[in-house]
User: What shape does this take?
Amino acid sequence: RVGWHGACDVSGMSTNTEKELQTLLSGEVAAAETYTQAIDALSGQHKDVLRGLRQGHGDAIKYFHDELHKRGVEPQASSGAWGTFAKAVEGSALLVSDKLALKALRAGEERGLAEYLSAVRSANLASEHRTHIETELVPAQHRHVSKLDQVLQEV
Assistant: This one.
């Protein structure tokens, strides 16, 4: 399983909302790192698409970072254990083929979507965060999956 959202050290945080925001932030950092790895290694024709997808994750990183700061929490910039795992899987896929690497990115996007949907259903998020995830981040994840599907058809 390739997943970007996952375990990170949230022990110093005081609320479930802060923990959830940090976990989602760590997932987005892992996604951006994984895209950077793929962009550096894949052949040139799809790099612009991947850069655009990475930028989408960069926008999400900024959102979670800002929201944690508003709550007086210093965001952790680490992608955590899942980031290490995702990068290892992506690195292995890159050794085999561009198509396998793109499939690994797509699987990561699907996992990220599942994590967002789970977060929205949980009681851990404040309503403003739930709304932002539902109206901005979930649709972005769907767009990322669709864009990767298009790229996969061309490879």
